[in-house]
Each structure stands twice: as C-alpha cells, then as structure tokens.
Amino acid sequence: MTSTPVQLQEVVKQFSGRTVLESIDLNVHGGELLALLGPSGCGKTTALRIIAGFERADAGRVLIGGRDVSRVPASRRGVGIVFQAYSLFPHLSAEQNVAYGLAVRGLPRRERRKRAGELLELVGLAEHGAKFPHQLSGGQQQRVALARAFAVEPSVLLLDEPLSALDAFVRQQLREEIRRVQREVGTTTVLVTHDQEEALSMADRVAVMHQGRFAQIGTPSEIYRTPASSFVASFVGVVNRVPATINSNGRVGVLGAELTTSSAHRGEATALLRPEDLQIQPDPEGRALVTGTTLRGAITSIEVTWQDTPVRVDVPTGTATRFSAGDRVRITPAVDNVLVEKEAAA
C-alpha cells in the first residue's frame, strides 16, 4: 500500500506583489485523503499547484515522502493529478487513455492492457473500455481520468475540483466512488474543493483556508461541531447569528438560556448556533414567530423571527407539520456550549 506523506513548510507565494499563501505549514499523512476547502481566492489551488510542481514557492519547502522536492520538476515528483476538465485524448479509447502513461513508460502492450482493464473495473467501467470519450457521459469520463491517474501508481494523487462540472446526482455517485478507490489503493490524496459537503463526506481531514492561511485543520466532525472561528462556522455549514450577553462569570445568555463559551469577552455579543442545535415548541405565549417553512428532504427548516432576528431551526420533516406561518413558538438551544463571534463582542 502506498503511504507517502506530504509536507508544506513555511510556504509563501506571491503574485504581482500580492501574497496568496502566507507562510503556511501542512502535514498530509501517508494514505489519507485531505481536503483543502475554502472560498475562491483563498489560496487552495495555488497550494495544490505548488505540491504538484506547476508553481514554485517564493519561500519554504515541499516534501514528498520526506524528500525535498521544492526544486524538482513536476514530471519527477511521482504525483498524479485529476483536473475539473477531464482532458482525455479524444482519439483514444477509454482503455487507451488509461494505458497512456504506461505506454510512455515503455510497458509491454499486454501489461498495459491488463493494468488498464483492472483499473477500469475498479472504477466501474469494465464494459466501456472500447468506447471513445465522446461516447461516455461526463461522470464516466471523469472515472476514466481517475483510472488514468492511478495507472502510473503515483505516490500522491491531487484532485483539483474534479466534480464541480457534474450534476448533483453524478457528483454524489463519484464522491463515493473516489473515496472507495482511494481507500482500496491507499494513495495519499489531496482534494481541492469549495464544496463543504464534498469535503465533509470524502475527507479523513479537512484544512479550511481563508486569505492565504489555514483557519482550521481537523476531522470533518471537528470542523463542523467545534469550529475554531466564526469564519469556519459560517463557511462549513449554516449558522444562526443570535444576540447574546456574556456576563461577569463567563456564561452566555442567549434565547433565554445560559450557556458556556470559551470567549474571554464580556457584555453584548453574537452567538453562533447551528439550525439543528435549536429546539422549537408550540407556545401561544412564545417570543418567536414562525414566518415560513422550507422542505429539504429528510429535514425541514422552520424560519422564525426572535426579537426581530431571523432564526432557522431544522427539524425532522415528519414533525414539521406542527408548525405554520404565524404560529407563536418557543426556541431554546439544545447545546451547552456556544461559539461567540468575537468580532461582534463588546
């Protein structure tokens, strides 16, 4: 099993005098899938291109398998890459596309065909090897691109927004497929995405980037349940911003309840609460008013106003029929600890 760690050490990158990466450090464990998640312009694609060797850092080092490859050309880093664009050769069949890198390496034709067939079977395309790219769907073409990347047995696989051009149903299928193949092959993988659901569902760990730095690195559960900042909480998932007061003993008064927080601030503040971390009950004397509902499949969002503040509460769809626009309700936190938006605290 391939198990090659990747490290960025104090990497700096500037474009036209603008700093895109500000002395970042990153350790990707051997065999894991790490997602670089963040909004456009945060530096995630630049970080990926520096690992690949397509860009050179202005300062710092890139290590692959413990070897400093900062000055090593991309072709000699042992890295495979899959882009958003499939970049398949239109005049070659799926099997020939997968085997292309093996042909460049001089493997005999019989071995190339055997390896290409194994990989096409791995990505669920065993019966499509003779088809040309124009005869395949977008999702199938991306599977061929993935198989081609694995064919040369890279020590590290880099995925640059590989699913963003596909429709939602195909994206969901390929997320599961890529994760399954990555686990089976064991290749260290770095995924660049701006899609939080993609990152949380596929990655062993997620590195959230913001303005050229890492805002937080952790497991999907850590990133979602215990965000390190208001930016992470807002970018990864949905949060309600609710007026709160931090009293002298450090407790937070919010929505009529008293919670704990790690904030050292005192006085007026803004508490960040996930929609699923709120409870809602019908109450004719309640201080919150239902303004509408939105069906989201297994859950339904109840939109309410509480002291002129819009608040979203997510409940199982089966129980949502209890609430209608105009109803008076009581909403309370279902958690003991709350993140306070420090920038808003007095």
TrEMBL record:
GO terms for cellular component: ATP-binding cassette (ABC) transporter complex. It comes from the Bacteria. It holds the Pfam family ABC_tran. Residues 6-236 form the ABC transporter domain. Keywords: ATP-binding, Nucleotide-binding, Transport. PROSITE patterns: ABC_TRANSPORTER_1, ABC_TRANSPORTER_2. GO terms for molecular function: ABC-type quaternary ammonium compound transporting activity; ATP binding; ATP hydrolysis activity. This is ABC-type quaternary amine transporter. It comes from Kineosporia babensis. The keyword Methyltransferase does not apply. Its EC number is 7.6.2.9. It is an enzyme of class 7 (translocase). Gene3D superfamilies: 2.40.50.100, P-loop containing nucleotide triphosphate hydrolases.
